[in-house]
Specification:
22 strands; FAD/NAD(P)-binding domain; alpha+beta; binds flavin-adenine dinucleotide; 2 domains
Length: 461
């Protein structure tokens, strides 16, 4: 590749804080609030103009159930977020289905109230590190390039950008294929006559004699299908594919449900893409946006032509952020292995418990439930605090889907419950490290866990 040598330049320091959180998404919001609530000064750097990351800007809702009885939230910040989203009318009674727009607003309100300094439209593009100690991050924005100094750093970029810029080791992609998980561009459609659409779903269930992945109870509407061809909605997709109105990829992963408090709006978890899937490559991300928009227009026409309730429907939002399931996982003091996850391993420094299945998307969906019988009466796996401590660095934590885990383990823990817990634990760990002047790998994860519990996080005993 052709290259230019850039002259050395001085980059001014614009801000300093105890803790610098990079990435204001699912994990980053929890990290920033948890750290600020401990009295640390916190700067949260985010490339978009609002918080929430995948859950906000990629429109990813609902929070997946942990598949543990009672669905305990191993996070006290989640309680704050739920209360705020409820009061803003953006969370349903299950406490899992939320309106992504309300999540953005609630996250921002909570960060500001906690005293977090927000820095939007700012991209982390470099790191100043010496002997395993991060001094500052280099950022690019309309204001130019500048350094933001900190005492501890939490990488919540989803892709581990900060850790990789600092030189941390990482893995990426399915070890069998080398490819990352598929990516999606989510959207909402408004102007839908929900009861007509719901009745259409009920009719399809009766007509096909198949109720798989579809339901309507007069209020809640849900439908899904994947490439496995045994779903209630498969038949209608097949008709559209043979008529040339859709292609096979359109039915390889399709999912729709209602959003709380939005009377005529449906949220779609598609289109999904299987080839250009590297979320760390801007060419792939661009392709997801351009191909995605074309697919969304085509899908809306399909709903109008083949389904009921879409006569006056229109696209009300297309995610500004591409939905990326997996890219890099940073090498940490402990890397959660596939065997740990499948064997439901427990750790005394665990910050999260989950029994969410292995969930590897692709043209064949791989969803493994309860693969290993568990005889300890505790059917869940745990993630240790050490999987948040970046190996080789004294003051760098990582949280969210890019924490230290093998590919198969990541396919389960990438969901929002665990991303939230990981951010909260990393934020608390960073605040302990700064307050006590200790290295990240000396922070006792058991202490972090009990701080979480003291503040209202629930763990199964
Ligand atoms: C299509 C799709 C469907 C999913 N479905 C579900 C579901 O139904 N339920 C569920 O619980 N989970 C689901 N997930 C998984 C889950 O939503 C994500 O894995 C999780 O939200 C990731 O959290 P995170 O904090 O690691 O990253 P994100 O929430 O993506 O946050 C990363 C943040 O960092 C910012 N950022 C990145 N790089 C930089 C940089 N260099 N400088 C500045 N800012 C930067 C981003 O803008 C973003 O705000 C889904 C994921 C996808 C993609």
């Amino acid at each position: 590749m052709k290259a230019y040598t850039v002259p050395q330049r001085e980059i001014p320091v614009r801000f300093s804080a105890d803790i610098v959180v990079c990435g204001g998404g699912t994990a980053g919001v929890h990290a920033a609030i948890a750290a600020a609530n401990e009295g640390s000064s916190v700067i949260l750097i985010e490339q978009f103009g609002s918080l929430g990351g995948s859950a906000g800007n990629a429109l990813v809702t609902p929070v997946m159930h942990s598949h543990i009885e009672g669905d305990p939230a191993c996070s006290y910040v989640t309680n704050l977020l739920n209360d705020r989203m409820s009061s803003l009318g953006g969370l349903d009674s299950s406490k899992r289905v939320f309106d992504p727009l309300i999540l953005r607003i609630a996250s921002e309100q909570l960060c500001l109230e906690a005293g977090v300094q927000l820095l939007y439209y700012t991209f982390v593009s470099g790191v100043i590190a010496e002997n395993g100690i991060i001094k500052g991050v280099i950022t690019a924005s309309k204001s130019g390039e500048y350094v933001i100094e900190g005492k501890a750093f939490v990488d919540c970029t989803g892709d581990g950008d900060l850790s990789v810029l600092a030189g941390a080791e990482y893995t990426k992609g399915n070890p069998e294929t080398g490819k990352c998980q598929p990516i999606s561009l989510r959207y909402t459609v408004s102007g839908v006559n929900i009861s007509e659409f719901g009745e259409f779903i009920s009719e399809e269930i009766t007509r096909t004699g198949n109720g798989k992945g579809a339901s309507y109870d007069g209020k809640t509407v849900y439908a899904a299908c994947t490439a496995s061809d045994d779903w209630a909605m498969t038949d209608i997709f097949k008709k559209a594919i043979s008529a040339g109105d859709l292609i096979d990829e359109d039915k390889a992963y399709w999912q729709v449900f209602k959003l709380p408090n939005r009377k005529d709006t449906l949220a779609f978890n598609n289109p999904e893409f299987f080839e250009y899937v590297d979320g760390t490559d801007s060419v792939h991300l661009t392709k997801a946006q351009t191909d995605g928009k074309a697919a969304i227009i085509k899908q809306l026409n399909f709903y109008k032509k083949y389904m009921k309730g879409f006569e006056n429907a229109y696209i009300s939002e297309i995610a500004p952020m591409v939905g990326v399931r997996e890219t890099r996982n940073i090498t940490t003091e402990y890397v959660l292995s596939s065997d740990d996850l499948l064997g439901r391993k427990k750790f005394d420094d665990a910050f999260c418990q989950s029994n969410y299945p292995v969930d590897i998307h692709g043209k064949t969906l791989k969803c493994i439930q309860n693969i290993t019988p568990v005889n300890d009466g505790k059917p869940w796996y745990e993630i240790p605090f050490r999987s948040l401590v970046v190996k080789g660095f004294d003051n760098l934590f990582v949280a969210g889907r890019c924490l230290g885990a093998e590919f198969l383990a990541q396919s389960s823990l990438r969901v929002q419950q665990s991303a939230r817990s990981s951010g909260e634990a990393a934020g608390l760990g960073a605040s302990i490290a700064v307050r006590e002047g200790i290295k990240a790998n000396v922070v006792d994860g058991r202490r972090v866990r009990s701080m979480m519990e003291d503040k209202g996080a629930i763990f199964k005993k």
